[in-house]
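R.M. (postdoc): so does anyone remember the format we settled on? I'll just put the structure tokens first.
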């Protein structure tokens, strides 16, 4: 995946995500999936980016 790609339609400030643009607050994916862990979400905290992938902490040592 190209971390330098910037999808200007998807702003993102989650720098701990593998899909985060390497230089700006945008997602590098073409599309994302948004979901919820609640049957009837009523707060922002109830909505999740299901495309989130935690950055690997492995340093290939």
């Amino acid at each position: 995946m190209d971390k330098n790609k910037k999808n200007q339609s998807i702003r993102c400030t989650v720098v701990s995500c593998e899909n985060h643009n390497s230089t700006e607050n945008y997602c590098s994916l073409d599309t994302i999936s948004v979901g919820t862990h609640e049957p009837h979400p009523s707060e922002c905290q109830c909505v999740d980016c299901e495309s989130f992938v935690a950055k690997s902490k492995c340093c290939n040592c």
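R.M.: ...and that's the designed sequence above, right after the tokens. Also worth knowing: The longest strand covers residues 7-11. The chain is about 0% helix and 20% strand.
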